Protein backbone atom coordinates (compact mmCIF):
# COMPACT_ATOMS: atom_id res chain seq x y z
CA UNK A 1 0.00 0.00 0.00
CA UNK A 2 1.48 3.38 -1.02
CA UNK A 3 1.89 6.18 1.52
CA UNK A 4 2.45 9.91 1.10
CA UNK A 5 3.11 12.64 3.62
CA UNK A 6 0.26 14.90 2.52
CA UNK A 7 -2.84 14.05 0.52
CA UNK A 8 -4.73 17.12 -0.65
CA UNK A 9 -8.26 16.07 -1.57
CA UNK A 10 -9.38 18.63 -4.13
CA UNK A 11 -6.87 20.05 -6.58
CA UNK A 12 -8.76 23.24 -7.37
CA UNK A 13 -7.49 26.75 -6.72
CA UNK A 14 -7.23 26.33 -2.93
CA UNK A 15 -5.72 22.85 -2.94
CA UNK A 16 -3.21 23.71 -5.66
CA UNK A 17 -2.26 26.93 -3.84
CA UNK A 18 -1.54 24.93 -0.69
CA UNK A 19 0.65 22.51 -2.65
CA UNK A 20 2.52 25.45 -4.17
CA UNK A 21 3.05 27.07 -0.77
CA UNK A 22 4.40 23.80 0.65
CA UNK A 23 6.54 22.46 -2.17
CA UNK A 24 9.90 24.16 -1.53
CA UNK A 25 9.89 23.30 2.17
CA UNK A 26 8.50 19.85 1.41
CA UNK A 27 11.35 19.18 -1.00
CA UNK A 28 13.89 20.08 1.67
CA UNK A 29 12.19 17.71 4.10
CA UNK A 30 11.71 14.92 1.62
CA UNK A 31 7.92 15.09 1.83
CA UNK A 32 5.73 13.76 -0.95
CA UNK A 33 2.47 15.58 -1.71
CA UNK A 34 -0.42 14.01 -3.60
CA UNK A 35 -3.24 16.06 -5.18
CA UNK A 36 -6.44 14.10 -5.75
CA UNK A 37 -8.81 15.83 -8.15
CA UNK A 38 -11.89 14.62 -10.12
CA UNK A 39 -11.44 17.06 -13.00
CA UNK A 40 -8.23 16.88 -15.00
CA UNK A 41 -6.45 20.23 -15.48
CA UNK A 42 -6.22 21.27 -19.12
CA UNK A 43 -2.97 21.01 -21.03
CA UNK A 44 -3.19 24.65 -22.04
CA UNK A 45 -5.20 27.77 -21.32
CA UNK A 46 -8.15 28.28 -23.67
CA UNK A 47 -9.63 31.80 -23.70
CA UNK A 48 -13.40 31.87 -23.31
CA UNK A 49 -15.83 34.76 -23.24
CA UNK A 50 -17.78 32.94 -20.53
CA UNK A 51 -14.86 32.04 -18.26
CA UNK A 52 -15.62 32.23 -14.53
CA UNK A 53 -13.40 34.65 -12.63
CA UNK A 54 -12.13 35.35 -9.13
CA UNK A 55 -11.38 38.71 -7.53
CA UNK A 56 -7.94 38.53 -5.94
CA UNK A 57 -7.25 41.05 -3.20
CA UNK A 58 -4.01 42.99 -3.01
CA UNK A 59 -3.10 40.70 -0.11
CA UNK A 60 -3.54 37.68 -2.42
CA UNK A 61 -1.12 39.26 -4.88
CA UNK A 62 1.44 39.57 -2.08
CA UNK A 63 1.10 35.86 -1.28
CA UNK A 64 1.51 34.78 -4.90
CA UNK A 65 4.48 37.14 -5.26
CA UNK A 66 6.21 35.42 -2.34
CA UNK A 67 5.49 32.08 -4.01
CA UNK A 68 7.02 33.27 -7.29
CA UNK A 69 3.81 32.97 -9.28
CA UNK A 70 2.54 36.53 -9.61
CA UNK A 71 4.46 37.37 -12.78
CA UNK A 72 2.69 34.54 -14.61
CA UNK A 73 -0.74 35.33 -13.12
CA UNK A 74 -0.44 39.04 -13.89
CA UNK A 75 -0.32 38.44 -17.64
CA UNK A 76 -4.12 38.05 -17.61
CA UNK A 77 -5.02 39.81 -14.35
CA UNK A 78 -7.09 42.97 -14.72
CA UNK A 79 -6.17 45.53 -12.03
CA UNK A 80 -8.96 47.12 -9.99
CA UNK A 81 -7.85 50.74 -9.84
CA UNK A 82 -11.04 52.14 -8.34
CA UNK A 83 -14.14 50.82 -6.57
CA UNK A 84 -17.40 52.76 -6.85
CA UNK A 85 -19.95 51.87 -4.16
CA UNK A 86 -23.52 53.12 -4.49
CA UNK A 87 -27.03 52.53 -3.15
CA UNK A 88 -29.72 52.64 -5.81
CA UNK A 89 -32.23 55.46 -5.41
CA UNK A 90 -30.16 57.27 -2.77
CA UNK A 91 -27.69 60.11 -3.10
CA UNK A 92 -24.65 58.76 -1.27
CA UNK A 93 -21.72 57.00 -2.90
CA UNK A 94 -18.24 56.01 -1.82
CA UNK A 95 -15.14 55.75 -3.98
CA UNK A 96 -11.98 53.86 -3.17
CA UNK A 97 -8.86 54.28 -5.26
CA UNK A 98 -5.54 52.47 -5.46
CA UNK A 99 -3.74 55.80 -5.72
CA UNK A 100 -5.18 56.99 -2.40
CA UNK A 101 -4.15 53.71 -0.74
CA UNK A 102 -0.65 53.86 -2.18
CA UNK A 103 -0.90 50.51 -3.97
CA UNK A 104 -0.74 49.62 -7.69
CA UNK A 105 -4.25 48.12 -7.51
CA UNK A 106 -6.92 47.45 -4.89
CA UNK A 107 -7.25 43.95 -6.30
CA UNK A 108 -7.23 41.99 -9.53
CA UNK A 109 -9.81 40.00 -11.48
CA UNK A 110 -8.46 36.77 -12.95
CA UNK A 111 -10.17 34.04 -14.94
CA UNK A 112 -10.20 30.84 -12.89
CA UNK A 113 -8.95 28.82 -15.86
CA UNK A 114 -5.90 31.06 -16.18
CA UNK A 115 -5.20 31.06 -12.44
CA UNK A 116 -5.52 27.28 -12.36
CA UNK A 117 -3.19 26.92 -15.33
CA UNK A 118 -0.55 29.10 -13.63
CA UNK A 119 -0.85 27.09 -10.41
CA UNK A 120 -0.58 23.70 -12.11
CA UNK A 121 2.42 24.79 -14.18
CA UNK A 122 4.12 26.15 -11.05
CA UNK A 123 4.01 22.80 -9.22
CA UNK A 124 7.24 20.82 -8.87
CA UNK A 125 6.58 17.32 -10.22
CA UNK A 126 9.39 15.93 -8.06
CA UNK A 127 7.40 16.88 -4.96
CA UNK A 128 3.75 17.09 -6.02
CA UNK A 129 2.04 14.30 -7.92
CA UNK A 130 -1.53 14.00 -9.22
CA UNK A 131 -4.24 11.38 -9.12
CA UNK A 132 -6.61 12.80 -11.68
CA UNK A 133 -9.36 12.18 -12.55
CA UNK A 134 -9.96 10.49 -9.20
CA UNK A 135 -12.20 10.88 -6.17
CA UNK A 136 -11.86 9.81 -2.56
CA UNK A 137 -14.91 7.78 -1.60
CA UNK A 138 -13.89 6.86 1.95
CA UNK A 139 -11.61 8.26 4.66
CA UNK A 140 -10.60 6.09 7.59
CA UNK A 141 -8.67 7.62 10.52
CA UNK A 142 -5.55 5.76 11.62
CA UNK A 143 -3.39 6.34 14.72
CA UNK A 144 -0.74 7.95 12.48
CA UNK A 145 -2.77 9.37 9.58
CA UNK A 146 -5.62 8.48 7.25
CA UNK A 147 -6.41 5.65 4.89
CA UNK A 148 -8.07 6.84 1.68
CA UNK A 149 -10.10 4.71 -0.70
CA UNK A 150 -10.45 6.07 -4.24
CA UNK A 151 -13.25 5.47 -6.71
CA UNK A 152 -11.08 3.01 -8.66
CA UNK A 153 -10.71 1.02 -5.39
CA UNK A 154 -7.09 2.12 -4.96
CA UNK A 155 -6.17 2.44 -1.27
CA UNK A 156 -3.42 4.70 0.04
CA UNK A 157 -2.33 6.17 3.34
CA UNK A 158 -1.12 9.63 4.35
CA UNK A 159 0.32 11.38 7.39
CA UNK A 160 -1.95 14.38 6.83
CA UNK A 161 -5.19 14.60 4.84
CA UNK A 162 -6.28 18.07 3.72
CA UNK A 163 -9.93 18.28 2.73
CA UNK A 164 -10.44 20.97 0.07
CA UNK A 165 -13.26 19.43 -1.94
CA UNK A 166 -15.76 22.29 -1.89
CA UNK A 167 -18.75 23.58 0.02
CA UNK A 168 -20.85 20.46 -0.51
CA UNK A 169 -18.18 18.16 0.82
CA UNK A 170 -19.53 14.64 1.16
CA UNK A 171 -16.35 13.57 2.94
CA UNK A 172 -16.84 16.26 5.59
CA UNK A 173 -20.25 14.79 6.27
CA UNK A 174 -18.86 11.24 6.21
CA UNK A 175 -16.39 12.21 8.94
CA UNK A 176 -19.22 13.53 11.10
CA UNK A 177 -18.13 17.16 10.93
CA UNK A 178 -21.17 19.37 11.32
CA UNK A 179 -21.73 22.78 9.74
CA UNK A 180 -23.37 26.01 10.82
CA UNK A 181 -25.40 27.41 7.96
CA UNK A 182 -27.40 30.60 7.46
CA UNK A 183 -29.29 30.71 4.17
CA UNK A 184 -29.57 34.10 2.49
CA UNK A 185 -32.66 33.02 0.52
CA UNK A 186 -30.92 34.43 -2.53
CA UNK A 187 -29.09 33.17 -5.58
CA UNK A 188 -26.12 34.73 -7.33
CA UNK A 189 -26.45 35.15 -11.07
CA UNK A 190 -22.99 35.05 -12.65
CA UNK A 191 -22.27 36.20 -16.21
CA UNK A 192 -19.80 38.21 -18.27
CA UNK A 193 -20.89 41.52 -19.77
CA UNK A 194 -19.48 43.78 -22.49
CA UNK A 195 -20.18 47.53 -22.07
CA UNK A 196 -19.89 50.13 -24.82
CA UNK A 197 -17.44 52.27 -22.83
CA UNK A 198 -14.06 51.33 -21.39
CA UNK A 199 -14.19 50.23 -17.77
CA UNK A 200 -10.71 51.67 -17.10
CA UNK A 201 -10.14 49.26 -14.24
CA UNK A 202 -13.14 50.45 -12.22
CA UNK A 203 -15.22 48.00 -10.18
CA UNK A 204 -18.80 48.76 -9.16
CA UNK A 205 -20.66 47.61 -6.06
CA UNK A 206 -24.32 48.54 -6.45
CA UNK A 207 -26.81 47.89 -3.65
CA UNK A 208 -30.55 47.74 -4.20
CA UNK A 209 -33.58 46.80 -2.13
CA UNK A 210 -33.82 43.57 -4.17
CA UNK A 211 -30.18 42.58 -3.54
CA UNK A 212 -26.62 43.69 -4.28
CA UNK A 213 -24.75 43.50 -7.57
CA UNK A 214 -21.08 43.78 -8.50
CA UNK A 215 -19.54 44.50 -11.88
CA UNK A 216 -15.81 43.79 -11.95
CA UNK A 217 -13.32 44.67 -14.70
CA UNK A 218 -11.97 41.84 -16.88
CA UNK A 219 -9.43 41.78 -19.71
CA UNK A 220 -10.66 42.65 -23.22
CA UNK A 221 -13.04 45.27 -21.76
CA UNK A 222 -15.40 42.66 -20.38
CA UNK A 223 -16.94 42.83 -16.91
CA UNK A 224 -17.78 40.00 -14.52
CA UNK A 225 -21.30 40.37 -13.17
CA UNK A 226 -22.42 39.02 -9.79
CA UNK A 227 -26.12 39.86 -9.38
CA UNK A 228 -27.83 38.68 -6.21
CA UNK A 229 -31.61 38.30 -6.20
CA UNK A 230 -34.27 36.25 -4.45
CA UNK A 231 -34.33 32.69 -5.77
CA UNK A 232 -37.40 32.86 -8.03
CA UNK A 233 -36.45 36.29 -9.34
CA UNK A 234 -32.92 35.12 -10.09
CA UNK A 235 -34.35 32.20 -12.06
CA UNK A 236 -36.60 34.60 -13.99
CA UNK A 237 -33.58 36.73 -14.89
CA UNK A 238 -31.62 33.68 -15.98
CA UNK A 239 -34.44 32.68 -18.33
CA UNK A 240 -34.84 36.06 -20.05
CA UNK A 241 -33.68 36.49 -23.64
CA UNK A 242 -30.46 38.49 -24.02
CA UNK A 243 -32.10 41.77 -25.01
CA UNK A 244 -34.60 41.70 -22.13
CA UNK A 245 -31.91 40.73 -19.63
CA UNK A 246 -29.58 43.54 -20.69
CA UNK A 247 -32.44 46.02 -20.57
CA UNK A 248 -33.34 45.05 -16.99
CA UNK A 249 -29.70 45.06 -15.92
CA UNK A 250 -29.21 48.47 -17.50
CA UNK A 251 -32.18 49.82 -15.56
CA UNK A 252 -30.66 48.72 -12.26
CA UNK A 253 -26.99 49.50 -12.97
CA UNK A 254 -27.41 52.69 -14.98
CA UNK A 255 -25.16 54.08 -17.72
CA UNK A 256 -21.83 54.47 -15.90
CA UNK A 257 -20.27 52.23 -18.57
CA UNK A 258 -22.50 53.30 -21.41
CA UNK A 259 -24.78 50.76 -23.04
CA UNK A 260 -24.46 47.14 -21.96
CA UNK A 261 -24.05 45.37 -25.31
CA UNK A 262 -23.51 41.65 -24.73
CA UNK A 263 -24.07 39.06 -22.01
CA UNK A 264 -22.61 35.58 -21.99
CA UNK A 265 -23.87 32.37 -20.40
CA UNK A 266 -25.72 32.91 -17.14
CA UNK A 267 -25.24 30.62 -14.13
CA UNK A 268 -27.15 30.53 -10.83
CA UNK A 269 -25.72 29.65 -7.43
CA UNK A 270 -27.95 29.45 -4.30
CA UNK A 271 -26.30 31.36 -1.46
CA UNK A 272 -25.80 30.16 2.10
CA UNK A 273 -23.19 31.10 4.67
CA UNK A 274 -21.62 27.79 5.70
CA UNK A 275 -18.97 27.24 8.38
CA UNK A 276 -17.55 23.87 9.40
CA UNK A 277 -17.79 23.27 13.15
CA UNK A 278 -14.33 21.68 13.08
CA UNK A 279 -11.43 22.66 10.82
CA UNK A 280 -8.69 20.48 12.29
CA UNK A 281 -8.39 17.06 13.83
CA UNK A 282 -5.33 14.94 14.40
CA UNK A 283 -3.88 14.31 10.89
CA UNK A 284 -6.74 16.27 9.24
CA UNK A 285 -7.23 19.87 8.07
CA UNK A 286 -10.19 21.38 6.21
CA UNK A 287 -9.71 24.26 3.78
CA UNK A 288 -11.58 26.35 1.23
CA UNK A 289 -15.34 26.22 0.85
CA UNK A 290 -15.38 22.98 2.85
CA UNK A 291 -14.27 25.11 5.84
CA UNK A 292 -16.26 28.29 5.12
CA UNK A 293 -18.42 29.33 2.17
CA UNK A 294 -19.16 33.07 1.99
CA UNK A 295 -21.50 35.33 0.05
CA UNK A 296 -19.66 36.38 -3.14
CA UNK A 297 -20.65 40.05 -3.22
CA UNK A 298 -17.84 41.22 -0.90
CA UNK A 299 -15.27 39.17 -2.83
CA UNK A 300 -13.71 37.72 0.33
CA UNK A 301 -14.21 33.94 0.02
CA UNK A 302 -11.24 32.78 -2.06
CA UNK A 303 -8.94 35.40 -0.55
CA UNK A 304 -9.66 34.14 2.96
CA UNK A 305 -9.10 30.54 1.81
CA UNK A 306 -5.77 31.52 0.25
CA UNK A 307 -4.66 33.14 3.51
CA UNK A 308 -5.69 29.96 5.33
CA UNK A 309 -3.69 27.81 2.90
CA UNK A 310 -0.63 30.04 3.25
CA UNK A 311 -0.87 29.99 7.07
CA UNK A 312 -1.31 26.21 7.12
CA UNK A 313 1.77 25.76 4.93
CA UNK A 314 3.83 27.99 7.23
CA UNK A 315 2.63 26.11 10.33
CA UNK A 316 3.40 22.68 8.83
CA UNK A 317 6.87 23.71 7.65
CA UNK A 318 7.66 25.09 11.11
CA UNK A 319 6.36 21.92 12.77
CA UNK A 320 7.60 18.36 13.26
CA UNK A 321 9.36 16.34 10.56
CA UNK A 322 6.21 14.27 10.03
CA UNK A 323 3.13 16.44 9.32
CA UNK A 324 -0.24 15.96 10.96
CA UNK A 325 0.28 16.32 14.71
CA UNK A 326 -2.68 17.90 16.45
CA UNK A 327 -0.71 20.61 18.28
CA UNK A 328 0.61 22.08 15.01
CA UNK A 329 -2.83 22.01 13.40
CA UNK A 330 -4.46 23.60 16.45
CA UNK A 331 -1.82 26.36 16.43
CA UNK A 332 -2.68 27.05 12.77
CA UNK A 333 -6.38 27.17 13.63
CA UNK A 334 -5.81 29.63 16.46
CA UNK A 335 -3.66 31.82 14.25
CA UNK A 336 -6.42 32.05 11.64
CA UNK A 337 -9.37 32.25 14.02
CA UNK A 338 -9.51 36.06 14.19
CA UNK A 339 -8.97 36.48 10.44
CA UNK A 340 -11.81 34.06 9.73
CA UNK A 341 -14.14 35.55 12.33
CA UNK A 342 -13.61 39.14 11.14
CA UNK A 343 -13.74 38.30 7.42
CA UNK A 344 -16.84 36.12 7.68
CA UNK A 345 -18.50 38.75 9.87
CA UNK A 346 -17.56 41.60 7.51
CA UNK A 347 -18.88 39.72 4.48
CA UNK A 348 -22.08 38.63 6.21
CA UNK A 349 -22.89 42.03 7.71
CA UNK A 350 -22.24 43.91 4.46
CA UNK A 351 -24.54 41.46 2.69
CA UNK A 352 -27.34 41.77 5.24
CA UNK A 353 -27.02 45.54 5.70
CA UNK A 354 -27.11 46.32 1.99
CA UNK A 355 -29.71 43.69 1.20
CA UNK A 356 -32.36 45.13 3.49
CA UNK A 357 -35.26 47.23 2.20
CA UNK A 358 -36.28 48.49 5.66
CA UNK A 359 -36.37 52.31 5.62
CA UNK A 360 -34.31 52.81 8.79
CA UNK A 361 -31.67 50.35 7.63
CA UNK A 362 -31.60 52.01 4.20
CA UNK A 363 -31.14 55.43 5.82
CA UNK A 364 -28.35 54.08 8.00
CA UNK A 365 -26.39 52.59 5.11
CA UNK A 366 -26.94 55.76 3.07
CA UNK A 367 -25.33 57.78 5.86
CA UNK A 368 -22.64 55.12 6.20
CA UNK A 369 -21.64 55.44 2.56
CA UNK A 370 -21.58 59.21 2.90
CA UNK A 371 -19.41 58.85 5.98
CA UNK A 372 -16.98 56.61 4.13
CA UNK A 373 -16.37 59.32 1.57
CA UNK A 374 -16.04 62.07 4.19
CA UNK A 375 -14.07 60.31 6.95
CA UNK A 376 -10.59 59.18 5.83
CA UNK A 377 -10.02 56.72 8.76
CA UNK A 378 -13.30 54.90 8.04
CA UNK A 379 -12.57 54.87 4.34
CA UNK A 380 -9.10 53.46 4.91
CA UNK A 381 -10.49 50.73 7.19
CA UNK A 382 -13.04 49.71 4.54
CA UNK A 383 -10.37 49.76 1.81
CA UNK A 384 -8.07 47.52 3.85
CA UNK A 385 -10.91 45.04 4.32
CA UNK A 386 -11.50 45.02 0.58
CA UNK A 387 -7.76 44.55 -0.08
CA UNK A 388 -7.55 41.58 2.28
CA UNK A 389 -5.24 43.45 4.67
CA UNK A 390 -7.64 44.44 7.44
CA UNK A 391 -7.26 41.31 9.56
CA UNK A 392 -3.52 40.83 9.16
CA UNK A 393 -1.40 41.94 12.13
CA UNK A 394 1.70 42.27 9.92
CA UNK A 395 0.08 44.49 7.25
Automatic annotation (TrEMBL):
Domain of life: Bacteria
Domain FAD-binding: 5-334
Keywords on record: FAD, Flavoprotein, Monooxygenase, Oxidoreductase
InterPro entries xref list: FAD-bd (IPR002938), FAD/NAD-bd_sf (IPR036188), UbiH (IPR011295), UbiH/COQ6 (IPR010971), UbiH/COQ6_monooxygenase (IPR051205)
SUPFAM superfamilies in the record: FAD/NAD(P)-binding domain
Pfam families linked: FAD_binding_3 (PF01494)
Gene Ontology process terms (BP): ubiquinone biosynthetic process
Pathway: Cofactor biosynthesis; ubiquinone biosynthesis
Gene Ontology molecular function, alphabetical: 2-octaprenyl-6-methoxyphenol hydroxylase activity; FAD binding
This enzyme's EC code(s): 1.14.13.-
Broadest EC class assigned to this enzyme: oxidoreductase
Keyword Kinase listed: no
Needed cofactors: FAD
Family: Belongs to the UbiH/COQ6 family.
UniProt-recorded name of the protein: 2-octaprenyl-6-methoxyphenyl hydroxylase
Species assigned in the record: Pseudomonas veronii
Amino acid sequence: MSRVNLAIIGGGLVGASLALALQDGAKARGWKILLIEPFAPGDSYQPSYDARSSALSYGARQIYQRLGLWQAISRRAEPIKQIHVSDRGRFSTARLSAMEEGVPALGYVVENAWLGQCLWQGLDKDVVSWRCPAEVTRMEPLPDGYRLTLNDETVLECDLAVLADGGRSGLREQLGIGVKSRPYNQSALIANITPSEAHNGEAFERFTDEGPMALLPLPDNRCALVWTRAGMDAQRLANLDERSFLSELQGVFGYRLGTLKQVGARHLYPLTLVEAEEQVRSHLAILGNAAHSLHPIAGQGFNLSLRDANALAEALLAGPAVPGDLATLQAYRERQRMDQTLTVGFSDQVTRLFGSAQPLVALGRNMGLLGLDLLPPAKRWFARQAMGLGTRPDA
